[in-house]
Records
---
Amino acid sequence: MEKSMRRNCILCIVCFCALVMSLVDGILNPVYPVKAAIKLVLFLLVPLVGYYRFAPDELCLIFRSGKRAWFQAMLLGVGVYVLIVGAYFVLRPFYDFSTITTQLAAGEGVHAGNFLYVGTYIAIVNSLLEELFFRGFAFLTLRRYLKTGVACCISALAFALYHVGMTVGWFSPVLFALALLGLFVGGCLFNALDWRSESIWASWMLHFCANAAINTVGCILMGIF
């Protein structure tokens, strides 16, 4: 009974935080500093309380590092970087990506003047928060109470749905669906890396490279380089 209660509490925390953050992005759409503060509460403070209550020893374990996992993540990260940037150049003749920069400027106050600062925060800090929450808490901790495959799918699905609020309206329906599918598959890949290493360092490296690629595309769109 105690195990079932802990599992349900973790599931509720994961669903609640992911849903609230998606609604903040999609409906409230505050300027980026406000959104970052909300995310710090939902993706850092809330899971830390969850760790303290349900898995106090897990928090130290998820920050272990291994050379093999790091090497694999670096190779995958380079591949993901090339894939994302390459996809942009392939799709650029068929899709007008300028609407993305317009929405970022109008909604979150992100523009060419502050994009490098925001992009650096997203690549390093924001990716770490998401890995701590979705891979550390929503996968590595949840797999204590569920089968690994089930925990992996729940974590990846929450990760994809969390991005709905921030990306809705960016793409055509087909590209939007493909983006969500890619996020789900990417979440599963991140989980697989963490399952092998039992830490979040490998997935954080891969996540960092993916965000760096998106930032590169953003710099091109905003004329920074």
---
Amino acid sequence: MEISLILLKEIIKLFLIMLMGFALIRTGKLKTADGKALSVLLVYLILPCVIIHSFQIDAADEIKKGLLFAFGASVATHIIFIVVTAFLRPILRLKAIEQASLIYTNAGILVFPLITALLGPQYVVYPCTYMAVQLILLWTHGCYLLCGSGEVHLRTIVSNINVVSIIIGAVLFLLQLKLPVLVDQTMNTVGSTIGPIGMLITGMAIADCDLKEIFFKIRNYMPVLIRLIAYPIMLIAIFAILHISSYVVDGKNILLTIFIASITPTAAIVTSMAELYDQDPSYSAELCVLSTILSIITMPILVFGYNYFV
């Protein structure tokens, strides 16, 4: 229960920051387009700093095993989401946007500040595996969903700044090469802004939306509730039945980092990809906004359920 309350407090803090971004747009102090500059700052500077700094840890055998365990859990989680979504597609007549929104989460923005607050900075390295798996699938499977093409965007994957950062961090970790203390501390300071900057961007994006239309469109709730409630409950059941947390030392906490990454709102990047492939980006944005707002309620409850059953 205690960890759920900590999570709730952290989510409320992030939500209040989101409201600040919302207010800046609604009061005319900033324009929605100004959020692009913050997005560039987040993607090309803050996230890479978080990722590389998170790998600056000792390569103990337990950590190596934990990373392999986290990677396996990340792959399995995505496979489950993809298979179940494919099963639901004809039954619920899911559109391409809805399928992508069910599978891919906004873990990049939310998971690092939340896990730092819940478990400590030493656990931030584990959800990097979730991000790596998701980025690869987004530009392969995600592209297939949205444009109907089986083309693998290898160049896009390899050149993605966050994938590059994960590779650099992993190499430094495996070779046990330590950055100069001053450089590492600087990256840690920059990385600590990921939560506030991410939520300011989200608030600025929401301010440009018609919230009344989003909340009163019944269809929006179907994919959002599946993403925020049904899929996480399914994961809890699988984790509990298979006793997955017992596979490695400290498995419950490591698995929790992957679980939190999997229960965050729908991925904001899906909206950008929808724009790219002419797949109704406004609908994708509606799902992202609604799931972000409702996740304030669902995430603490789900983490409580994880701690109780897993």
---
Amino acid sequence: MLPRAKKQFGQHFLTDRHYIDRIVTAIAPKTEDVMIEIGPGPGALTAPLLEKLSHLHAVEIDRDLGAALRTRFSPEKFSLHEQDVLAFDFAVLASRFRCVGNLPYNISTPFLFHLGEFADELIDATFMLQKEVVDRMVAGPGTPDYGRLSVMLQYRFSMARLFVVPPGAFTPPPKVDSAIVHMTPLPANRPTADDNVRFAAMVTAGFGQRRKTLGNTLKPFISATQISACDIDPARRAETLSVTEFIRLSNVKV
């Protein structure tokens, strides 16, 4: 019997065996992997993952679910960390790890930014999120879904949407479709900003008023003349810029 989903945690429990199997196949766990599951809930993914892994770490904030998981799975194979994943220090578990999970809709974006801080230690991640969020994550310049989330994640990760999971696969069913996304950190020799804080601030400013031109939105950081010197028209809008172009603007010396 499934536990009652708690609204404050944004819980929707995956119950459809077909999609559970598809997700595990997409993750392709190997025995020796150091893997961390986010929000295991009642353990729909936990159980099949443990059939393939020698050990699994899980982060769960709901203490009622945590107690049930501790009873169900052996501590020799399963380590539960009962805390808020937005404050979780992934680096304390291993120098290299993989991450999976059915992310609660209400924390998905802040969690993705938090995980980005550990990109150097992350091997890859496979997550289920609201389809709308996944579409924004993988969107390209000039498309309606392209925005701050797209740029900030594509700065650190290569991402692909794998498949859609319908509401009926969950209990209780959400009001929207979900989707599976696979994320792989980009190599160390990728284009990078000289100052990540400045880069993030410029991206935020650029998309803060989408209808305004770069010459206006980026005025606190860089002049229209400097934008032109980067071979970028200051009359363009942020939604047309590639990640590399944002990096170029961020690296202008002021």
---
Amino acid sequence: MDTFEQAFKIAIGHEGGYTANPADPGNWTGGRCGVGACHGTNWGISAAAYPQLDIASLTLDQAQEIYRRDYWDRAQCGRLPAALALLVFDATVNNGVGRAIRWLQATLRVAQDGAIGPATLAAIEAQKSNSFRLCAEFQANRLIFMAGLATWRTFGDGWARRLCELPFEAFQMGVVS
């Protein structure tokens, strides 16, 4: 199993199957509670991000295709060290590609433009020996942001567990040595 397939399996484990909780802004086609139709989220694919999809009927294979194309490939996770790739990938799915890349860039202390380019890749290469610090700082940036969301009171317990489990999952899948 390649790194994407392992990361996908972990992300899907956190995202789960179909839900249509009206308190979750991602379940609405308008991206805000009460705006548009509440079509839900399935396999982490939300009505807010994909209002044209039949979310309830989405298959796991379709979700995997979307994850690779719209999250893994867009964030160039295949060019990142495996542990960091898992963390960035999970953040792209849960928080958006641009935001996840900006967190990575903040961690690397490079310009935060939301795109993986030569400067970001060079900084990753230069800091490979600090992979544990990079992973911890990336997760800290993500946690600080998520704890500040208005929906933290509703979903924060699950999000906190997810953020704490991810480094251990990276270890279990053999990407952290």
